[in-house]
Amino acid sequence: MPTENKIPVIYVAGPYRAATRELIAENIAVARSVAVSTARLGWFPICPHTNTAHFDDDLPDQDQFFLDGTLALMERCDAVVLINGWRYSAGTLGEVHRARELGMPIFACLEDLPSATEFNGVKVPWRTYTGTDN
Fold this sequence. Notes:
Number of strands: 4
Order of helices and strands: EHEHHHEHEH
Number of domains: 1
Shape: globular
Number of helices: 6
CATH superfamily: Hypothetical protein PA1492
CATH class: Alpha Beta
Oligomer: single chain
Strand order of the largest sheet: 2-1-3-4
Helix content: 40-55%
Strand content: 5-15%
Largest sheet: 4 strands, parallel
Radius of gyration: 14 Å
């Protein structure tokens, strides 16, 4: 759990893989936009979409490597924010499952994410995704 002097780190979770390179690029752009928005709220974003954008071109057939690596990144974060369409992403479903196991706060969408200051105060109740809302 973050302390008042520590910047909270947020993991941006959502679809990356897609049928075409263009659709992958769209997923990366959406994730980047969410990551920038979290930074505006005072969070330090970890956005695997931008961190390893198109690495799959140079490292084909390494899907499990990327899934395991991004999960390891997520486990080091203070919270998770979900991107629209996450329910259709096997990778994101795995991340949500693991985050629940760890008891991490999961924000169903950017609009539910408090500012970093509010989160650090631990006085603002966050709405954790429970599997019941869209």
